[in-house]
Amino acid sequence: MDNGKARVDPDAFLSRVEFGAHQETIDHVNRKIFRAYRGGHSGAIPGDIFRLRHQVYCLECAFLQAEQYVDGMELDDYDDVSTHFAAYTLDEKLVGAVRLVQPDAPKPYPFELHCEVFSDFEMPDREQSAEISRLVVKKSHRRRRADSVLGIPGFLPSHHHDPADDFDPAVDRRDRTSPMLLLGMYREMFRHSQDSGIRYWYAAMERSLAHALKKMGFRFMAIGPEANYYGAVTPYVLDLHDLGRKLRQSNPTLAAWFNEKPPVVEHSYPSRVHVVRNQELGNTPNDIN
């Protein structure tokens, strides 16, 4: 019966179970659900995020002492001043997480506790800045170091590549053979930053990660010398306005993918999320907030 409302495929409904996300994007192409959670609200951030951080930071990398944390959950006093982003499989399994930290002055950014900046670097306004922090990916979904940018919108395979790295869409929709998991979380942070007036991202990361992000179009600028901060890392900054401009020039396909509004409509039902696909919308995705 046509009651004037858009018809929705039953497959577009996914249970939230225990999650309380205030924002959600479902990427059916890459078989991922991306959710954002604001800190500062008791119980708002799923414990699975803190358990994955504990697994990576305490058990696998031994950056932190596992016995200092309760119930196998790694938390710190920056979680309440952060927006947390998480990537789930369509069967609701957490595979990656990251946070954007925005502490109020005079509280320093996390990287400032361990890294120095060059004397000629001027910190941008705090209201426009946030630090990328606690990036973790489940071990089974990590990419190999030799992985290329195959699978990223706008990138074509090189003429000089290892056939073993070829992307077979029938087999390789796994994050181990594609950077889409990492890029998907960065896209969610980018969208949130645009909506929140954040222009600058800080990040303390290994040079290998900075190089991988550069291949994807994220050209972070080093703002200080290398330091020992959960391993050898360098502090960087990224101007999102500059990123958007350069992406539009060098890779308009990726720029469009980053700026596309997700076809997701939130409802107040406690246990269901109503996903509206592009073809069901009477207007364009850019008209949806």
Question: Explain this structure to me?
Answer:
By secondary structure, this protein is of the alpha+beta class. It contains five helices and twelve strands. Strands 2, 3, 4, 5, 6, 7, 8, 9 and 10 form a nine-stranded mixed beta sheet that branches. Strands 1-12-11 form a three-stranded antiparallel beta sheet, with no helix packed on it. A hairpin with a 4-residue loop joins β2 and β3. α4 packs across α5 (252-259). The longest helix has 17 residues, at 180-196. It starts with 12 loop residues before the first strand and ends in a 14-residue tail after the last strand. The relative contact order is 0.15.
Task: Give the topology string: H per helix, E per strand.
Answer: EEEHEEEHEHEEEHHEE
Estimated share of beta-strand residues: 15-25%
Biggest beta sheet attributes: 9 strands, mixed
Multimerization status: single chain
Q: Percent range for helical residues?
A: 10-25%
Q: How many runs of DSSP E, i.e. beta strands?
A: 12
Would you summarize the structure shown here?
With 289 residues, the protein is α+β, with helices and mostly antiparallel strands. It has helices at residues 47-60, 180-196, 207-216, 240-250, 252-259, and strands spanning 13-15, 23-27, 32-38, 82-89, 94-101, 129-137, 200-205, 221-222, 227-228, 232-239, 264-265, 272-275.
What is the topology?
Blueprint: E1 13-15, E2 23-27, E3 32-38, H1 47-60, E4 82-89, E5 94-101, E6 129-137, H2 180-196, E7 200-205, H3 207-216, E8 221-222, E9 227-228, E10 232-239, H4 240-250, H5 252-259, E11 264-265, E12 272-275
Parallel strand pairs: 6-7
Antiparallel strand pairs: 1-12, 2-3, 3-4, 4-5, 5-6, 7-10, 8-10, 9-10, 11-12
Helix pairs in contact: 4-5
